[in-house]
Design goal:
The structure is a single chain. The chain is of the alpha/beta class. It is built from five helices and five strands. The protein has a five-stranded parallel beta sheet, with helices on both faces. The two termini are 29 Å apart.
């Protein structure tokens, strides 16, 4: 167990506390900075899909920015290799406050098949505080968009662990 929030537990106490602050600050538009922290390319391919016409994140007020100085959210994919620890921390510190970090994919959450090892971390949470975690290898574009909508307060968090009974009796 690690201290990040997965999409399965996005409705935790911290979400409820941050929902007002983050939701109010990021209500209209959100500028995203995408960082490859040693990813294999699968998560980055799915992240690139969200800006294509089929998903069209611009209609939701999400824009990808080339510089962390104008970014509200840092999207990180990959297990965070040793050579990316310092640049990732620098990019985070260059962002204005309030700021958020979204970890995309299994490697960013736990290091995946690469970590923890001598060359990579156990995940982004070892370097930066993670606000929203999106599991999957790779996660689909709609899961990434849902995480951004949860971060802004436009959508309630979804729990993957608690399912409704649909008329079944508990034993």
């Amino acid at each position: 167990s690690f201290p990040t929030r997965r999409s399965s537990d996005l409705g935790t106490e911290r979400d409820n506390k941050d929902k007002g602050k983050m939701g109010k600050a990021f209500r209209r538009s959100l500028h995203l900075r995408i960082v490859d922290a040693g990813a294999c390319g699968a998560c980055l391919s799915e992240i690139s899909q969200i800006s294509k016409p089929y998903y069209n994140i611009h209609r939701l007020g999400f824009f990808i920015t080339p510089t962390p100085r104008k970014a509200d959210v840092l999207i990180v994919a990959g297990p965070v290799t040793d050579h990316m620890r310092f640049p990732l921390r620098e990019a985070y510190e260059a962002m204005p406050t309030p700021r958020a970090v979204v970890a995309i994919g299994t490697c960013a959450l736990s290091g995946g098949i690469f970590g923890p090892s001598f060359a990579s971390c156990e995940g982004v949470h070892e370097v930066l505080p993670v606000d929203v975690a999106v599991p999957g290898c790779p996660p689909p574009p709609l899961a990434i968009i849902h995480a951004l909508l949860v971060l802004t307060g436009h959508r309630p968090s979804a729990s993957l662990t608690s399912t409704p009974n649909h008329g079944e009796k508990e034993l």
